[in-house]
Amino acid sequence: MATAASAATFSIGTAQTGRSLSPSNPFGFKSNSQVNFSGLKAMSSFSGNETCAALRATFAPKAVKENQNRNHILQPQASYKVALLGAAGGIGQPLALLIKMSPLVSDLHLYDIANVKGVAADISHCNTPSKVADFTGAAELANCLKGVDVVVIPAGVPRKPGMTRDDLFNINAGIVRDLVSAVADNCPGAFIHIISNPVNSTVPIAAEILKQKGVYDPKKLFGVSTLDVVRANTFVAQRKNLRLIDVDVPVVGGHAGITILPLLSKTKPSASFTDEEIEELTVRIQNAGTEVVEAKAGAGSATLSMAYAAARFVESSLRALDGDADVYECSYVQSDLTDLPFFASRVKIGRKGVEAFIPTDLQGLSEYEQKALEALKPELKASIEKGVAFAQKQTVTC
């Protein structure tokens, strides 16, 4: 690598990786990693003079020395294989580009039933280390998945005006079933990230299929609810005039409507909210997907923000696989924090998947939050049971 001319950070929500740059390597890939908790100090964009200046400040020699004293220096290497299933779709295309930017990805496998060759050809021109390969149709799915470390599944139909996430169930449930079955056959030890809606049901479907195949590891199955956190952080920062880079709001429950519960009382940095603000922010976060669907007037759903949020979660998973011991994200996973079998909450992620839950997030809730938590449980329970029932009716070949 050429001598560094400047420093920059690769950042998707929670991940910051400072590294040396050269004119031929604008993103950089070998360097020390400064890790932050759940996005509290993450940069808010990929580029720009302000961002680069802030980055240089955070990556000053003093900071590096402090990190070394904590024995917390990482050397990111492009060594992980990621498969993106549904790569030609509205979420898949921008997500493919963002994953291509990760310094931890050596191979990016793009799969879809059609139109994926062009996507692969396009992003393969980006001068980042990962090699891009395309796979089209069921006949090529097995080759796409072999040896993969992380599988990301945004495949399915998007929401349209007037549709609820449950309206997507009949189509997307079958898509998730088939794709997860192939994952079980070809890369059973991979982290599995489910984006396909309704996540409240598709994650239980995936779990049941993996059980039928005899390869279910609940620590490695994740429902990507990161978009709810991204939205909560954004809306709270705007309302309270806070620096977005500093804001972190845990979001628990599920990933649809009232099952999405932002814990505003747990906002960092601490902020006070009126009853009216709590109600308005909670409802907006819960209905933000509909806000985008209606704004696009039939032309799509929340594809770009979802891609951003999913890329953040992918990067966090890769950092965990790479040995970062300080990775926390909110995710919809098998959980014992409540009486529900699946629940979204903040989890600590390590090399083997979910390492720990953070029960303190559910302690000391406000009266509003406690009532909302109890109110969401019946709907979330019904969605989980719907997914389990669907999967149990399926015949999966072993």
Automatic annotation (TrEMBL):
EC numbers: 1.1.1.37
Keyword Membrane: no
Annotated GO CC locations: mitochondrion
Chain ranges of the Lactate/malate dehydrogenase N-terminal domain: 81-223
Domain of life from the UniProt record: Eukaryota
Gene Ontology process terms (BP): tricarboxylic acid cycle
All copies of domain Lactate/malate dehydrogenase C-terminal, residue ranges: 226-390
Pfam families: Ldh_1_C, Ldh_1_N
Assigned keywords, A-Z: NAD, Oxidoreductase, Tricarboxylic acid cycle
Record keyword Repressor present: no
Reactions the enzyme catalyzes: (S)-malate + NAD(+) = oxaloacetate + NADH + H(+)
Class of enzymatic activity (EC top level): oxidoreductase
Record-linked InterPro entries: Lactate/malate_DH_C, Lactate/malate_DH_N, Lactate_DH/Glyco_Ohase_4_C, Malate_DH_type1, NAD(P)-bd_dom_sf
Gene Ontology MF, one: L-malate dehydrogenase (NAD+) activity
Subunit structure: Homodimer.
Family membership noted in the UniProt record: Belongs to the LDH/MDH superfamily. MDH type 1 family.
Annotated protein name in UniProt: malate dehydrogenase
Lineage per the UniProt record: Eukaryota, Viridiplantae, Streptophyta, Embryophyta, Tracheophyta
